[in-house]
Design brief:
The chain has a 6-stranded mixed beta sheet, with no helix packed on it. Strands 1, 2, 31, 32 and 33 form a 5-stranded antiparallel beta sheet that branches. 26% of the residues lie in helices and 26% in strands. A hairpin with a 4-residue loop joins strand 8 and strand 9. With 647 residues, it is an alpha+beta fold.
């Protein structure tokens, strides 16, 4: 993999602790990292075909014979690859499209970059820009917008505006500075330059709509005093990524084997737009060897080639604070990325062959930020993904598990399933654990309610026009509200009647206590769920519903979708809405449940409703229940239909 210890720090055969081989997903809980199911497949690198990756557009370029026999561009988001040919004017060093794929830039020499417009009805003529600084060599270039580009040379940076219709470039700004290497973070539009002899003084620049700002430079602390005055800090030990909305520079520090250190570590430097860059977090790897870094779902993932395992760190979780920095251990035990099968390409007759297992943690893998892994030798580009289900079994501490899950993007269904498990055997939690989980969920729920309330107040006060930056709060999956809790957890829990009566009441009361603690108004649906075990709750809930009837339709829909037809009917009766509900919707759901007695009960309920409301048990044509009447007759016979009662 791409980041490794300097040779003098290597020791043969030392895996630095950690698990065994790459298939290590057995035991308690499986693999919590996986390669995406639909990778980008491209022609693998070979003497004729050169492969390039553009980190801004997340595109792979396969350039055959310098472009003369074709260039194919593929991206993870792209439905259709871009294919074209260009004149072979020498070896391609770097090739990238502008944001939006309208202008292609190609570097073939150390002195200039060639441009080609991909704009409809625009002539396919190349134009060239030479770097302005005399005797400078171009190290590479980055597009910062659809028409702005930065050349990085060994003597500084040059910021240009591209004028495609004039087929020329205009210099906007340049800065002289000795450069060893550079790195670009497209998500934050920041270019980082390595300067000075040792390479450990880093100078960031920020680009936005035609402006270039110099941020404060900072020094990376090297593990030991350098013995020689040569470049020590390599770009392979540095990464830049946005974590929880903040830009960080990640430094992989390989400790010398002679020191008393327990292994390598990743040091995080927080890089703000204004103010100085500070060392804020240290991630302890407790092992040595070759590493590579990714950032996925705000988690720092560190891959270890020797043991073919990876670990994850979450800087939001509590660590050990030493006054300036927070020291973190990995959240979960080391595990391999989930085994991946490469499908066999070829005609249908051949593809019946079983797929080939992909060599994980291969030395030919190259990682890019935030979550890209490329195997140039196999011709694949993957997104790395975090799987949350296995985490549930690897983090037995429910409080810590909730802290971890609440920060993840796709967390809702996993959190609700944890809540359900926690209330049922064999993994039933103690009331104190259940209370902790409810409090953590309601803390997030309250934060969202307050943000929503503040936004509404500003809008109603008419101040939103004067504040164009005001945005409606985003409802993330971490917001588990009362209807989520009722439909997915509490209604199922009370229906099952598995738990002791006292425990059931205690759980419901605990949830209501937690809501009260966070000053969240209790919705009626919760009190209705108490009705079967605590009758006085029924009247209380009805009184509330006269004032508040927000999530009722949603609750009915969810209960029906889960085939809890009787629970849905009980709920709607409890709130007094049973005279206006659609008979067909309930009969459809009852039929899908494939339970004849359930269907009979629901059918009979609506016959009785018809009799009460219209004096006749039969359905009107407008209710569209003909197929259900036919089905009822087939199963129970016509004589089972209710007869009109006459007075």
């Amino acid at each position: 993999m791409s980041r490794e210890a300097p040779p003098e720090e290597e020791a043969p055969g030392d895996g630095g602790g950690g698990g065994g081989g790459g298939g290590e997903c057995q035991g308690e809980g499986g693999c919590y990292l996986a390669l995406c199911a639909r990778p980008v497949h491209f022609e693998k690198a070979n003497p004729v075909n050169c492969v390039f990756f553009d980190e801004a557009n997340k595109q792979v370029f396969a350039v055959r014979s310098g472009g003369a026999t074709g260039v194919v561009v593929k991206g993870l988001e792209d439905k259709n690859p871009i294919s074209f040919r260009m004149e072979d004017k020498g070896e391609v060093k770097c090739i990238k499209f502008s944001l939006g794929n309208k202008i292609l830039a190609v570097q073939r020499t150390l002195k200039n970059v060639d441009f080609l417009n991909f704009i409809p009805d625009s002539p396919q003529l190349e134009y060239t820009q030479e770097c302005k600084t005399k005797n400078a060599n171009i190290l590479g270039f980055c597009w910062t917008s659809s028409t702005e580009i930065v050349f990085i040379t060994d003597q500084g940076i040059e910021f240009y505006q591209v004028l495609p219709e004039k087929r020329s470039l205009k210099l906007l700004k340049n800065q002289n500075i000795n450069v060893n290497w550079y790195m670009y973070c497209p998500e934050s539009s920041v270019i980082l330059l390595s300067t000075t002899v040792l390479g450990n003084v880093l100078q960031p620049f920020y680009f936005k709509s035609g402006t270039m700002s110099k941020l404060s430079k900072f020094e990376i602390e090297l593990p030991a005093a350098p013995k020689s005055s040569k470049l020590i800090l390599s770009e392979r030990d540095i990464a830049m990524a946005t974590i929880y909305g903040q830009l960080y520079v990640l430094y992989l520090r390989h400790h010398s084997r002679t020191s008393n250190s327990t292994g390598a570590e990743v040091v995080l430097y927080h890089l703000p737009r204004e103010g100085s860059c500070k060392k804020t977090h240290i991630l302890k790897l407790n092992r040595t060897g070759k590493f590579a870094l990714n950032v996925v779902d705000n988690l720092v993932v560190v891959h270890h080639q020797d043991t073919e395992t990876s670990v994850i760190f979450d800087i939001k979780l509590k660590g050990e604070f030493d006054g300036t920095t927070t020291i973190h251990q990995f959240v979960l035990p080391p595990r391999s990325i989930q085994p991946y099968q490469i499908p066999v390409a070829g005609p249908a007759s051949v593809t019946s062959q079983s797929p080939v297992p992909c060599k994980l943690y291969s030395s030919s893998w190259i990682v890019f930020q935030p979550d890209i892994i490329i195997s140039a030798s196999e011709g694949y580009l993957w997104n790395l993904q975090v799987k949350l289900e296995p985490v549930v079994y690897l983090l037995p501490d429910k409080g810590k598990l909730m802290d971890f899950l609440l920060q993840r993007k796709e967390c809702k269904m996993v959190i609700l399933s944890v809540c359900s498990q926690m209330l049922s055997e064999p993994g039933r939690g103690s009331l104190s654990v259940i209370a902790t989980v409810f409090d953590k969920l309601n803390h997030e729920y309250k934060k969202y309610l307050e943000a929503e309330q503040s936004y509404t107040m500003v809008v109603e006060a008419g101040q939103s026009r004067s504040n164009p930056l005001l945005k409606r709060p985003v409802r993330t999956q971490a917001v588990i509200d009362q209807s989520d809790m009722y439909t997915h957890v509490l209604s199922v829990f009370t229906e099952k009647k598995e738990a002791p009566h006292k425990f059931t009441i205690a759980v419901l009361m605990e949830y209501i206590r937690s809501l009260n603690q966070f000053q969240i108004a209790v919705q009626a649906c919760l009190l209705l769920s108490l009705e079967s075990i605590y009758p006085p709750a029924h009247q209380l809930s009805l009184d509330m519903l006269k004032r508040l009837s927000t999530a009722n339709d949603e609750i009915v829909e969810v209960l029906l979708s889960k085939h809890q037809v009787l629970a849905a009917l009980r709920f709607i009766r409890g709130i007094g809405g049973h005279d206006s509900i659609s008979a067909r919707k309930f009969l459809d759901a009852a039929k899908q449940a494939e339970d004849d007695m359930l269907f009979y009960t629901i059918f009979r309920f609506f016959e009785q409703r018809n009799q009460r409301l219209r004096g006749n048990p039969s359905f009107t044509p407008g209710e569209h229940c003909e197929e259900h009447v036919t089905f009822f007759k087939q199963v129970f016979g016509e004589q089972a239909l209710m007869k009109p009662t006459t007075f």
